[in-house]
Amino acid sequence: MGWLPSWLTGVDIEAEQRRSDDLDAAHRRLDDQRMNREEPLWTEDTWRDVQARRADTEAAGRDLAGQVDESFAEGFGEGYRSTTGAIKGAVNFPLKFIWDALPWWVWVSAAGYGAWRLGLLKKVLR
Fold it and tell me: What pTM value is reported for the model?
């Protein structure tokens, strides 16, 4: 059982898990029928490959609620980073533009003028 309610996801996770398990069982029965015929449709190597792939697929699909929770958290984090990145970019762009537009000697001159106006240079020059 995931922590996301079905009204938020739009899907009943538990029902989907049962449906997935039922489909896996039906798929397993069909595969067994293909192999247990008088003339099997698959060779032994193909059958072992099918069994290995089935085990991997079923192991990945066992915890549907966990997968939904993980995907939600991943999407939430990505959306958060995207939104905060856009806000930071919008705030920083004018400041970065002004910083990059003025040469270094203008900044030094402005700092010197500001220090002179604040009276900070009187102590240094005496």
Answer: 0.43
